[in-house]
Fold this protein.
Amino acid sequence: MSGSEHPDHLWRNPDPKRSYDVVIVGGGGHGLSTAYYLARNHGITNVAVLERGWLAGGNMARNTTVIRSNYLWDESAAIYEHSMKLWETLAEDLDYDILFSQRGVLNLTHSLHDTREAHRRVYANRLNGIDAEWLTPEEIKEFCPIVNLSPDLRYPVMGASLQRRGGIAKHDYVAWAFARQADAFGVDLVQNCEVTGFDLDGGRVTGVQTSRGPIAAGKVALCAAGHSTVLAAMVGLDLPIQSHPLQALVSELLEPALNCVVLSNAVHVYVSQAHKGELVMGAGIDPFISYAQRGSPHIIEYQLAAAVELFPIFSRAHVVRTWGGIVDVSPDASPIVGLTPIENLFVNCGWGTGGFKATPASGWVYAHTIARGEPHPLNAPFSLDRFARGALIDEHGAAAVAH
Amino acid sequence: MTRLASGGRIDRSRPLRFTFDALPHTGFAGDTLASALLANGVRVVSQSVTYGRLRGIFSAGVEEPNALVQVGGGTGSEPMLRATQVELYDGLVAESLNARGRLSPEPDVARYDKLFAHCDVLVVGGGSTGLAAALAAGKAGARVILADEQAEVGGTFLGGRDLIDGRPATDWLAEVATDLAALPEVRVLSRATAVGYYDQNCVLIAQRRTAHLGPAAPAAMARQRLWQVRAKQVVLATGAHERPMVFAENDRPGIMLAGAVRTYVNRYGVVPGHRAVIFTNNDSAYACAIDLDDAGLDVPAVVDVRPNPAGGWPDRVRERGIEVLAGQVVSDTAGGNRGLESVWAGQRIDCDLLCVSGGFNPAVHLFIQSQGRLRYDEILACFVPDEAPQAVAVAGAANGTFGLRDCIQEGLAAGAAAASAVGFGDGHPAGAPQVETVAEHPIVPFWLVPDESGATQFVDLERDVTVADVRRAVGAGMQSVEHVKRYTTIGTGSDQGKTAGINSAAIVGALLGQPVAAIGTTTFRPPYVPVSFALFAGRTRGQLFDPARVTPIHPWHVAHGAVFENVGQWKRPWYFPHDGETMEQAVLRECRAVREGVAAMDVSTLGKIDIQGTDALRFLNRIYTNAYDTLAVGHCRYGLMCKADGMVFDDGVVMHVGPDRYLATTTSGGAAAVLDWMEEWLQTEWPDFRVRLTSVSDQWATVAVAGPRSREVLRALAPAMAADAVSFPFMAIREGMVAGIPARVCRISFSGELAFEINVASWYGLRLWEAVMAAGEPFGITPYGTEAMHVLRAEKGYAIIGQDTDGTVTPQDLGMSWVVSKKKDFIGRRSHRRADTARPDRMHLVGLLPVEPEDLLPEGAQLILEPRQEPPVAIVGHVTSSYRSAALGRTFALALVKGGRDRMASQVYAPLPDRLHPATVTEPIFYDKEGLVRDG
């Protein structure tokens, strides 16, 4: 695999203009998809995406690329299923082979409690129009033969829920595909441009100060995951987000061995085999709060113990690289997408471990919110003020650390 | 054969047989697979991953991008090992790979272990620098660990021909090794590669212990060992990696790094060709020309990009009659299916070996992992270590110090300084030995041979990436080396771009018109070399993956045929089937025994936290939703705790066991989380509280004796303990002798029946249980498990936290406002007042009676109001618990239903794959609503 499958042109590298209708702060997957949908769905193209480093170099470059929509609660299911539907035509829409592969996502259960919760989710998904099946161990054997189904396992596999439409895509390509189309609409993607402050006029935001000079803006949309808290603090806004390191790892290229995505909460594995052949695996969250994109070694050790436990065939594979991303977690483990108390300032963060799979829908609803000045029905429940009101959408139980 | 008749560090008296792609070969002890292949004339070792091009051995170390092999036969083979790192053994079986490995389905029965160590000074790298550092630190008295990746220390200079104090450097090496061995506080780890450098000077070292022994490896010996070393000071003496040159057709077998060729000649006695050309931009490769000339090869030319290479090294080469083509480049090569045949350097030169050197990149991987920063050194033409936040020093070639004399001096100084920094010695090292040096002609940075023809110029051999790919990425708009990496895949192979990364940055810079210093490197991440999953996993496999916890009574349960359930880490009896009984029959029988006679359950797994201190009462009042001010010593009280969001988190019973002393129980699975939660509040929010928490879950064994006849059993066991309802009221605690064992007895019931929970020190647990069973025998006492317990509590409408709740349920939702104080503050209280948390149509815990009495709703089933079928359907709730009841003679369930308390007697439906299942909403209590049986 080499560069030859990519388009010849991705983006210009413009200097920032002095003023835009909309300035998006954060050039990750969500920022880029927001820019694209602002242009495509709402005809707003006088837009800049300001990125402190390189485009899509944060969590977009660090996640394990799992895509699924089988969330428990109606509100979550609706937005992630909207995302899934967008994924299903995204390569075509963006004219870019993003290697979207609906190979199925298995969620293994290892206890009566797990099994009860998995059934609950399967039943709820079906009522929400999301494909969901329950597999017995025999059916798992059929679907994914290398899972260790031995009853001698410390936590034997009792069954699994399966979303066949779930799968993976190539994260970098997704980001570049959005970036390329946004650029083609005339959106300025400005890299190495750090926002250092905000210009306010009364209770209204009018622009940003950056490492590349001041930029006036009709509207400012924060889209910087965990660092949104740092940005919001510049205008005195205290976002209820905690950031933790989350590590992931990859093996060398291997002949095909794993044909689907496998998640297990109890034994804590989430793994897939990428198109080129490397095993891609997420590890656990370091409990401390940090913006450092690195974690502790024991997390990796535990992760691989779990992987070898569930997939004995992985024993002799090698880790060639580990890395860390930052998960931005809200009190109910659901995102915050919507208005802020400051006029013309919008916020989109708190996706935690769900950000990659939400990339298209997040941009879709955020663009709507920015363009109309009011939330799309899909993100209305994910407002910032829900923490004051108490209308939480608690995905801790159902999402836990699964991705 | 290309093996020299003499020389090298191989043992020609010990031939070793091996096969490569099923062909038999012979090497010698001391060979690597790579050196043995070269000695056997094997030039093609793989085909490239994308283009299928023939590739040969390129290096002699960890940086190898081509010679990736599958090693091992019958007992399961290991993928993607570097032939340059595989020590030869008799019977070795290796196969070539196309940069993609195969996972063997054979179970991996080898043992992998871990070792944790502390030291004053950790020295990484056993080359000249590292040895000097370890020696200096060790002689100062520091506790030293020296980790070296090879089978013998010496590093690069095992492949050189330097003189120290006028003798071969290997003599000096042997002396240092002897000196180190004599120092009691110095430990030398061989075959040990430092792979990760984490915070607080924690370094992971992967040590290969038996692979080099092949089938002769002792079965009991761990195959690999993962060391986790905490060092007060770290000295990185990790050397440098030679850079290839980038030119057309630069990937043919026979094109090798010049330093690697020296290693093959001098260390392994192998000449990897017959006629060799050198292509360089620095002096180091001239030594290669001399070594090859001495080994009898024809060396027609040294091609040097520098316009006028002069001084010691070029002169020595010219003196031998070797032509130096100054200011020239190798711009193309030709060859066939055995690799290189000629090169073009302004003229065609026939050769089957091209030794390239583009300079050296200090191996700064671990330094970067330690959060050190790099700077670009214009004179050395490489990135070198700059600032370091941790207690680390970098010395020798890793620091951009390349001469042997300077490396030894810098190593000695770094070792002495590291020891001194932690209190050993004065920081002044002993004198360095005399090393002959030759004045060097400076390197001229040279990143890419210009090519207008569109020829293939490889940047990354393992990932098959060319200059054209880099050009395309930059042309598409990419300016960051991180983007180019992802677009082209440069540096993403199992070699992590050790030979490709810096060249690629320089080429990106050239295309953008920027210096390499401005482009920078991508981030180096652990592990430095690939590490097997199995090694990271270590012993944490099988039953040791998460060791099961069992109670002291467990052997009895096993002996009596219990079926177990995993509850958290615990093994708990789920039910006790009699011969021929189904689970359903057994559970109904166990339930009946509790309701009608007497039964016993092992409840030792409940979490138990001992809470002591003068602020214990204040603490409890804040942690639990209800108040404890009125709880007298000798009594206990049910308690519920919420998280800050007001949602129920755990529950249990708080016993007031003495002045300022309480014992709180938790759910079996929640004990650790509750203790963490309590400690978090104590340590971070209320540090002024005088409270100490101690986990005593394993210190107490507890037997619940439940049922109308339980009092008779207790009387038999504890004749001195007044057990009547007046003397021993509900929620009272009594201490005394039970079955001759000191015990604390609580009148607590989770079934609604008269019940006693008997707590004894855990080592008496089994004896107590046996005494209970014996005393209960006349009354037909029945052991019961978790399933019956669940049914019985559900009949009474008692929620199980974690089953009937899911972190989104308030005490009010459970209908448990009675346990929420209106007077005092507690965690979660403010959240209960939020508009949406106080809404009347939240999910409430209710009872469900399926319309058909035999209809058992599955737990997790969703509930709807209208029997519509097409999604999306509005969900009003879900079934949390569902059972058959012996007492009710029918099925029943608990459920969370939206506005459930306002839907009493109304109908809901569970849409299941087969059909809609109707059920009627009821109060969540089905048995003894008036509480008449509690006192027996």
Remarks:
- Confidence is low (pLDDT under 50) at residues 399-403 of chain A.
- Residues 136 and 159 of chain A are 5 Å apart (CA to CA).
- Chain A has ten helices and 18 strands.
- Chain A touches chain B through 89 residues (CB under 8 Å).
